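Bumping with the actual sequence this time:
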Amino acid sequence: MNETLADYAARHGLRQSAARPPLRKYLQSVWARRNFIWAFASAKNISMYTDSRLGQVWQLLTPLLNAAVYYLIFGLLLDTSRGVPDFIPFLVTGVFLFGFTQRSVTSGAKSVGDNLSLIRALHFPRATLPLAIAVVELQQLLMALVVLFAIIVAFGEPWTFNMLLFVPVVSLQLMFNVGIGMVMARLGAFNRDITQLLPFVMRTWLYMSGVIFSLPSLMEPGSKLAKYPVLGELLQLNPAYVYVELSRYVLLGEYRDHVTHDLKMNEAGQLWLSAGIWSVVMLVGGFMYFYRAEERYGRG
C-alpha cells in the first residue's frame, strides 16, 4: 500500500490542527477569547514593572520624562515653541498620543516571536496576541491620560464639551494601532531583525508627525515649508500627525483658536476624514494580512 499520510488524512476527514479556518469562524474564535485577551493584557501590563521599585508608576513617569527632555531640547534650547500657545500641554499631548502608536508598533513586532512557546503548546487564533498588545498599550494610555488632563487643567484649559470628541479620536487611533500592530506582528514573526530597525524608523516618524512642533505654523505663508506645498500635504496625511493634531484640536482650546486662523473648517474636516480612513483601512488590511499567515506562525 503506497498511500501517503496526507491521502490517509484526507480519506478520513482529518485536517491540520493549526490550519487556517474560514474568516468568519476565525473572527468568532477571536471574539470568544475576548476575556482571555483582556486578562492576558492585564497580566502582561502588571508584569512589565514587577522588577522595579516604583512599579506601575513608571507608566506615568516614562512619558513625562520624555516630554521633559523634548521640552528642554526643542522648547528651550531650539525654541520650536515660538508661536505655539501653552507649549507644555501641546508637547505632552503629542508625546503621549504618539507614544500610544509607537509602543503598539514596537511591541506588536515582538508579539508573535516572544510567545512561540505558547503558540506551539496551544491551539488558539494567533490574532489574539497582537490584540492583547493593543489592549496593553490602551491600558497604559488610560493611566497616562490622568496626568495629561491634570497638566491641561493646571495650565488653565477649561473643561468643555468639545473635549468629549477626544473619545472618538482615541477610538480611531486604537483601531489604527490594532491594524498596524498586526502588520508588524507578521513581519516580526518571520524577520526578527526588523525589531533592530524599528527604533530608527520610529524616531524618524516622530520628527515627521508634528509632535514637537506645530505643522500649521510651519506652513504659514513665507515659511520654509510653504515653499514645498506638496511636502506639507504629505505630512498632513501622516496618520500619526492626524491623531496627534486632532487630539490637540479637541483638548486645547487656545491652540485650536490659534490654528483656526490657518486651519479652516474644511481642513479640520479633512483631519477627521483622514483619521477615519486610516483607521478602517489599517484595521481591515492589517487583520487580513495577519490572518493569511495564520498557519505559518510558530513553525521552525
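The C-alpha cells above came from a reply further down the thread. The mean pLDDT is 81.
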